[in-house]
């Protein structure tokens, strides 16, 4: 018997309540009775099928409605609206309806940047100028199932020379931008750039612990605001009947709703109008594990400000069929247009259906003509607030049920609605200015998403997106940036860690306050500097200048603000040797073994300058 039929057979008496719920109404508060009515109206009477007589498990019954109340209040429009949308989307999914039916894709316009040229440097300066009017929003509620790390992802070291975790890197970068922005406008600057972190039940308390046990990594605690997203109800069938947990008849099964929740949370938090009143102009959204992100932020923000983009997506060149979405202009038969991320598995069929028989293929440049979306977004605050006031922060959702068979009548396991933050432009009017800023992948994008086993299975030539590749990408980017600034940096060697072949560049890291833009790097690198391929270099202070340095080994320099240190001369030592670690070796800490290597710190020159003044470090 179909689920809907069996549910219809439940006993419903005259007042609409099934018998065993009606008997229990006296146990509930008036508000809970209202929620019960809503559930019955939404044909959810199966939830009460196993409820015993009043007097038995009454606390559990009230707790059931406490959860219903949370699910109801945390979803824009309430649970009834969730169920109605779910029915529509499940019907579309069953009918195999293409969400892009009637749309024709084309390549949108945007700004393509070349790292280090005059245009790039000008955009960086414009971006730094605007940064004091920005707020940052980190979405960090994801489970990270693909990575399988036991901790929260933002606590993972982004690199292991200085051991800076992702959250520290993000906060220090925001603080560096804040300082740089204020220096540019000289004096007229009360800026404390706000940081919002969206968490979930899976990440919230550990994110708070990480911040508190590290004194917020130097940020004022009042600058940081955590918003916790709630999960949404799971659904058992195409009629959007809510799923109970298998071992608890008083608990609705829930799953994450996706990072699109960030918009409704920001809307309901009241932060947007507070920021607006404080004169802020930009909101920058970013994700939990991209150790290169801030290398592209100043220039992209400059593009937003110069081109008046309401929505600006950071993008990288995309290989055809690569598993990242393409930023696409879609024009409907009825004249509607939007610039939106089209997921890679939808781009190919969409192209084929609209007169491109080869589908998702590279152009003569060797890349897909559609820029690859890396989901770092810059919104102009005013238009964003206007749109959210209209939509109440709700975002177009989708559903992805795994059906038991081709009849699409039953699911393998419960499903739920999901939403993605990059779908925000879907409801914008055609007058909205939606663009992108594209730059090289090596500069801006190296997420840590995959565990070692899955990364090792990635087809050759495609990015691993693992802890190994994420860390090596930081050394490569820093080496290439120093090269562009005139430093002779040794060539990389190829090596394999956790069965992933990567380029190993000299292990160069610097604190964001040393340099947050290319212009800053150039101003702190003078004369003829050389760093050999086996070297490790960590620059931790703001006012450190490299001048005629020849490094072959390991050098770590720290300095307080106001300590101006010139580093020069020849530094030669046995250095730090990269040693392999097997990811199955549980005697090694998890964050080390998932990257597949560690440093054997044989010999280094390490110097710290703790007082203001002028110094020279010349061995
Ligand atoms: P990912 O695609 O990396 O997903 O999310 P995930 O859930 O973290 O990891 P998997 O898929 O289980 O392996 C992209 C970004 O969105 C955040 C993540 O924390 C990450 O920064 N996110 C994802 C949320 O904040 N909430 C969600 O419900 C899902």
TrEMBL record:
One Pfam family per UniProt: UDPGP
- SUPFAM superfamilies per the UniProt record, alphabetical: Nucleotide-diphospho-sugar transferases
Q: Which GO terms describe its molecular function?
A: glucuronate-1-phosphate uridylyltransferase activity; UDP-N-acetylglucosamine diphosphorylase activity; UTP:arabinose-1-phosphate uridylyltransferase activity; UTP:galactose-1-phosphate uridylyltransferase activity; UTP:glucose-1-phosphate uridylyltransferase activity; UTP:xylose-1-phosphate uridylyltransferase activity
What EC number(s) would the UniProt record show? Answer: 2.7.7.64
Query: Needs which cofactor?
Result: Mg(2+); Mn(2+)
The family classification in the record reads:
Belongs to the USP family.
Q: What's the name of the protein?
A: UTP-monosaccharide-1-phosphate uridylyltransferase
């Amino acid at each position: 018997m179909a689920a809907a039929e069996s549910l219809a057979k439940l006993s419903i008496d005259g007042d609409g309540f099934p018998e065993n719920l009606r008997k229990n109404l006296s146990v509930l508060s008036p508000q809970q009775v209202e929620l019960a009515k809503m559930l019955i109206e939404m044909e959810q009477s199966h939830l009460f099928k196993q409820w015993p007589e009043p007097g038995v498990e009454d606390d559990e019954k009230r707790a059931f409605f406490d959860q219903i109340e949370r699910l109801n209040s945390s979803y824009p429009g309430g649970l009834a609206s969730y169920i109605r949308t779910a029915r529509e989307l499940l019907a579309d999914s069953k009918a195999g309806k293409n969400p892009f039916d009637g749309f024709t894709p084309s390549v949108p316009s945007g700004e393509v940047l070349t790292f280090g040229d005059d245009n790039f440097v000008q955009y960086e300066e414009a971006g730094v100028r605007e940064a004091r009017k920005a707020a940052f929003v980190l979405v960090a509620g994801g489970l990270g199932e693909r990575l399988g790390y036991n901790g929260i992802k933002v606590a993972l070291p982004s690199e292991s020379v200085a051991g800076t975790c992702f959250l520290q890197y993000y906060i220090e970068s925001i603080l560096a931008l804040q300082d740089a922005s204020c220096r540019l406008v000289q004096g007229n600057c009360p800026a404390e750039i706000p940081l919002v972190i969206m968490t979930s039940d899976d990440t919230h308390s550990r994110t708070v612990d990480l911040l508190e046990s590290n004194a917020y990594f130097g940020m004022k605690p009042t600058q940081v605001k955590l918003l916790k997203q709630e999960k949404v109800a799971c659904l058992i069938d195409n009629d959007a009947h809510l799923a109970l947990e298998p071992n608890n008849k008083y608990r609705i099964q829930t799953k994450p709703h996706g990072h699109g929740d960030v918009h409704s949370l920001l809307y309901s938090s009241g932060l947007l109008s507070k920021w607006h009143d404080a004169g802020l102009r930009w909101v920058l959204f970013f994700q939990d594990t991209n150790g290169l992100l801030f290398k592209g932020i100043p220039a992209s923000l400059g593009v937003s400000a110069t081109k008046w983009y309401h929505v600006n997506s950071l993008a990288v060149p995309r290989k055809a069929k690569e598993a990242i979405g393409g930023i696409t202009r879609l024009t409907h038969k009825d004249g509607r247009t939007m610039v939106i991320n089209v997921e890679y598995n939808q781009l190919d069929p969409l192209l084929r259906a609209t007169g491109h028989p080869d589908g998702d293929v590279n152009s003569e440049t060797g890349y897909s003509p559609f820029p690859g979306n890396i989901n770092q977004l810059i919104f102009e605050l005013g238009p964003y607030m206007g749109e959210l006031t209209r939509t109440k922060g709700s975002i177009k959702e989708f559903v992805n049920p795994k059906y038991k068979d081709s009849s699409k009548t039953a699911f393998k396991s419960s499903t739920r609605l999901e939403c993605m933050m990059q779908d925000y432009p879907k409801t914008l009017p055609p007058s909205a200015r939606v663009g992108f800023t594209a730059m090289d992948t090596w500069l801006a994008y190296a997420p840590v998403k995959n565990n070692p086993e899955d990364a090792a299975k990635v087809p050759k030539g495609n990015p691993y997106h693992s802890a190994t590749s994420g860390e090596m990408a930081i050394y490569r980017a820093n080496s290439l940036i120093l090269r562009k600034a005139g430093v002779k940096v040794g060539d990389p060697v190829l090596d394999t860690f956790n069965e992933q072949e990567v380029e190993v560049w000299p292990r160069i890291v610097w604190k964001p306050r040393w340099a947050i833009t290319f212009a800053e790097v150039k101003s702190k690198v003078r004369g003829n500097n050389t760093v050999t391929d086996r070297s490790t270099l960590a620059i931790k202070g703001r006012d450190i200048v490299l001048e005629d340095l020849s490094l072959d080994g390991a050098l770590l320099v720290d300095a307080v603000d106001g300590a101006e240190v010139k580093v020069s001369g020849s530094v030669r030592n046995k250095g730090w040797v990269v040693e392999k670690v097997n990811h199955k070796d549980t005697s090694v800490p998890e964050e080390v073994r998932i990257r597949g290597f560690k440093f054997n710190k044989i010999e280094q020159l390490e110097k710290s300058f703790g007082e203001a003044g002028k110094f020279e470090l010349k061995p």
